[in-house]
Amino acid sequence: MSRREESDDEVVEVKRRRVEMYRSPLKLIRAEESVVKEQENVDTVSLAHLVGQRDLVEIYQFSFEMDLAYAMDLVHPEARPNIKAYFVFGKSRKGDMAERLEEQRKTLKYNKNITLVPIPLRYDYGTHHSKLMVLFFSNNEVQITIHTANLISYDWENMTQGIWVSPRMSLKGGGEHEFKTDFVDYIRAYKNPCLNKLADSLESVNFDDVQNVSFIGSVPGNYEKGSAEYKKWGALKLYDVVSRVEKRIEDKSDPELIVQMSSIGSLGPLSSYFNPILKRALLGQEPHGTDPTRNAKVSIIFPSLMNIRESLFGYGSGGSIHFPKDEKGSLQKELRPMLCQWKAKEAGRQILPPHIKTYTRLTKERKVAWMVLTSANLSKQAWGIVNKTKKNQWIQSWEAGVILSPPSSEPFTPLYKRDTSTSPCVRLPFDIPPSPYEDNDEVWSAKVSHSEPDRFGNIYVPR
C-alpha cells in the first residue's frame, strides 16, 4: 500500500470518528428479562440503575402507588444506611394509603431515614398521579427523572413504560432557565414545608445541560383568566409550549397526531371537550380560540380486548387500563374512527400492555416533530377544563410530563430497539403507522366482564 493510500485511509478513519451521535431523549423502562428478548432491552432504564448508584445520598419519590420496601431494596447497600428518602403521594379523605405506608415504613430496617409526604387531595375525583424522582449525589450533583411507572415492581417490570432522565447537574452556578423555573414552581405548588426545602435546593442548580425539553405539569386548582397561573398548568400550558415548538417546524402540511394512553376518562361529546380544548392545544392553537381548527389526522392508540387477551398475563394485564362506563356506547362510537390497536412489535413491547402516555406529532414523512411523555391520561381531571363562559381553567389532579423537541428544525427520526443514531432521534414505544381497529374489535375496559377465555383460558369478571 502506498503512503497516499495510507493517508487516505487515515482521513476516512478520522471522519468516521467525527460523526456526531444523537441519543433519544425518551427511554423505555427495562422489561423483565424473561419476558422480552435481550435486544429489545438495549438502552433501556431500570429503577435499580437510577436508585442503585453508590453515591446517592438523598431521594424524592413522587407517585400514585408506592411500595416502600421495593423502592428501598433497590438502593445501593452502601447508600441505604444513611440515605434520606422522601415519598410524596396523595392523601384522600379516607387516608387509607397514608396509613398503609406508615405501617410499611415501620417494618423497614432504616425507617428513620424515610419521610412520608402525604399531599391532601382537594377534589373527590382528583389524584396525585405524577411520577417523578429527584436524586441528590455526594458530589453535589442532582438528577431529575419524569416517567410513567408507579413505584411498584409490576409497573417497572411488566408494562410498557417511558422515562426522561436529565443529565447530572451541578448544585452550584445555576442561573435562569425555563425548565428550572417551571419545575421549581411545580414543586412549590405543593405548599409543603418538606418540598419547599427541595425547591430551595433546586434554585441553585445549573440546568444549562437540559435542552430542547419543557416541563408540563398539572396542579389542582381553579385558575382565572388573566392570572399568573392561568396558562402555567394543564391544557393551557400544553398549548403555550406546543405553539412555540410548532413555529420551528418547516413542514406546514396538515399534521398527524398520535394520542396514546392507558386510561380514558368520561370526556362527554368530543365537541365539548376533546376537540375545542385538548386537540387544539396539541395543534398549538388556544383552547376555545376563534380561529379555525387546523386539519389534522388524529389516531388514538388504546388497547383492544384482543390486545389484552393476548398480553403477558392475559386479562390479568388489564387491571390498570381503563375505559369509562359507556352504557349507551356514545363515547366509543365517537372515538371509533380514531381508535387504533396497541401494536408494538417493532418496539419489542407487543406483549406488554401500555402504561406509558404519549402525545406525538408526526410530519408527512412520518418523522416526529415533537413528543410529550407524561403521567396525564386522556381525561378532564388530568388536563383541566377550560371554561369559555367562566373564563377559567379547572384542574383536579397532579400530573407531570415533558415535551421533547429536536435540536433544530429537522424532525426526530423514529427509533426502535436502540437509543442512538447519526441524526436527531426519538425511541418510540409503539409501531407507526398506527393500526386502526377492525370491525369486530372491542375496546378493552376493566369495568366490563368478558366470557371468552384469554391466552391462559381465564375469563374476566371485574372486581
From TrEMBL:
Major subcellular location class: nucleus
A GO term, aspect molecular function: double-stranded DNA binding
Subcellular location: Nucleus
Record Pfam families: Tyr-DNA_phospho
Segment forming the signal sequence: none
Alphabetized Gene3D superfamilies for the sequence: Endonuclease Chain A (3.30.870.10)
Matches recorded under SUPFAM superfamilies: Phospholipase D/nuclease
Sequence positions that bind substrate: 131, 357
Protein name: Tyrosyl-DNA phosphodiesterase
Organism: Trichomonascus ciferrii
